[in-house]
Write a structure and sequence with these properties.
- By secondary structure, the chain is mainly alpha-helical.
- The chain contains 22 helices and four strands.
- Strands 1, 2, 3 and 4 form a four-stranded antiparallel β-sheet that branches.
- It is elongated.
- The chain starts with a helix and ends in a 6-residue tail after the last helix.
């Protein structure tokens, strides 16, 4: 039965044959039995998405497997589609009269959207699942209405370099890091209000309202995928390849959710709608496959931090990888972040300043201030020395030990150094427990890595190559294999092979 219900060609053939023979009623009876069997087998796995419980994450965490992602759920979707195809003489009629909701021309999928650009037709939905998002219209104040988002034109570039690495307009570029696009100002396409479909018609893009680019009715994503993608493609000015638009839009949604969560004027319906949309977008096979493949490859380490956080959100909700499987990768991404910033500091500063940075980070100085890092005084102090040897001799005269090394480095120790900013730490903290354990328990492992990063000469190479060489060191490999098991004595033995500062 699965082979029939999950194959699109099979669905079409059965439905159209039934319709041609005038046997739609027989097909309907068979589909009723299919629905009944699926309901019996999966009653406990329902993850109900309804207007009364928009945020399904609570239900998902308590109920376990999400019904909407299960095979039976997709089989019920298929059954509903077969009913529609076998009964309707015109699969793309528009009984609600909403064909004028978008005045822009585009090229829709003939499978999912009418040739005139109208909304997808209603079909017989499986029971217990709500496919439209309902809520209060912020324009006409109607309650319990089917809502839509009027995507707006993105802000004009400021010319300050914010658009670095953002593909040009109309380029339809294939992306290496699609989940990292949400933080660009040019991707701020979601307004601060949400309206009903009737008001959305009035707000549709016209010559007098060019800022409104496209209307996106909040209809179920998997059944209207191309319709969603067409709107997002238009609003993002066709910068991205269509295959990248689901993860791009997912990143945009997460960024908007973060922004309105910290705003004093929070629209609860908009917030819930965006959560609903991200919940649906996660299930897109392209998004999950892309994310999972990159998460298990070295590419994830160089993934921009905001995109890395988005990837973890997808994986967390999809259950593709467990939390324990993702924790070591988060640690590696944190260490790679330190390495990237170290290399940037090395490139932009003198050898004396670099040595001073290493000294401040790696040496234990009980005779100094309780603050481990005092960068401003050191930055003013270092230019007085032209060579590293001069600085070494000065420190020796002051009886400051240069071989009493720190054997633990916490995240707090690294904060506000050139290697870790408060903004970057805030991004890592968005990962919740995936990062919290690093703050609490990985200080010894961080110390081993940072000692090797700052003291081991690996020759001229790119950051990713240096990171690979560091991880190949037996001492580093052991430290990262079980960070929680390290002791001070193990760290001491691990860094003994390194040259002195």
């Amino acid at each position: 039965m699965r082979e029939i219900m999950l194959n699109e060609d099979n669905l079409k053939s059965i439905a159209l044959t039934s319709k041609a023979r005038g046997e739609s009623h027989k097909l309907a009876k068979w589909l009723d039995k299919v629905d009944q069997k699926l309901d019996q087998e999966n009653e406990e796995d329902y993850d109900i998405i309804s207007s009364g419980d928009i945020n399904a994450s609570t239900a998902r965490s308590s109920a376990g497997v999400s019904y909407r992602r299960s095979i039976p759920f997709h089989m019920k979707q298929s059954a509903a589609a077969m009913r529609s195809m076998s009964r309707n003489s015109d699969s793309f009629h528009d009984p609600r009269g909403l064909s004028n909701i978008d005045h822009f021309q585009y090229t829709p999928s003939q499978r999912e959207v009418g040739a005139d650009g109208t909304f997808p037709p209603p079909i017989d939905y499986p029971p217990k699942i709500s496919y439209d998002f309902l809520g209060n219209c912020s324009r006409c104040q109607k309650s319990g209405a089917k809502l839509a988002i009027v995507l707006r034109a993105p802000p004009q570039p400021t010319g300050t370099g914010d658009a670095k690495n953002l593909p040009p307009i109309g380029s339809m570029s294939k992306l290496t890091y699609p989940l990292a696009m949400g933080n660009y100002p040019e991707m701020d396409i979601i307004p601060d209000t949400i309206v009903c479909e009737t008001c959305a018609v009035d707000m549709a893009p016209t010559a007098t309202a060019p800022a409104n680019v496209a209307v996106l009715p909040l209809r179920y994503y998997s059944m209207n995928r191309n319709y969603w993608i067409d709107r997002v493609d238009k609003a993002t000015e066709r910068r991205f390849h269509r295959s990248d638009l689901p993860p791009v839009f997912f990143g945009i949604l997460l960024t908007k959710i973060e922004r309105i969560a910290t705003s004093s004027l929070v629209n609860s319906d908009l917030h819930n709608a965006l959560r609903w949309m991200t919940d649906l977008l996660e299930s897109d096979a392209v998004l999950q496959a892309d994310t999972l493949q990159k998460f298990q490859s070295p590419l994830i380490l160089s993934y921009p931090l905001d995109g890395f956080v988005a990837a973890n959100t997808v994986l967390s909700n999809s259950g593709a990888l467990t939390e324990e499987q993702r924790k070591p990768v988060v640690l590696l991404r944190f260490l790679y972040h330190l390495l990237e910033n170290y290399r940037a500091y090395e490139k932009n500063n003198s050898a004396v300043q670099l040595y001073a940075a290493k000294f401040l980070i790696l040496t234990d100085k009980p005779q100094c201030s309780q603050s481990l890092f005092e960068w401003d005084p050191w930055q003013q102090f270092c230019p007085g020395f032209k060579k590293v040897e001069e600085l070494r001799r000065y420190l020796a005269r002051k009886n400051i030990a240069m071989d009493r090394y720190r054997l633990s480095l916490s995240v707090a120790d690294l904060l506000d150094t050139p290697f870790l900013s408060a903004a970057s730490l805030a991004d890592f903290k968005k990962l919740g427990p995936l990062f919290q354990w690093i703050e609490d328990e990985a200080g010894h492992a961080i110390a081993v890595f940072v000692h090797y990063m700052l003291r081991l000469d690996v020759g001229e190479c790119a950051p990713d190559a240096q990171f690979k060489k560091l991880r190949e060191r037996q001492e580093v490999e052991k430290a990262l294999a079980d960070p929680k098991a390290l002791s001070v004595e193990v760290v001491r033995r691990s860094i003994e092979p390194l040259p002195a500062l």
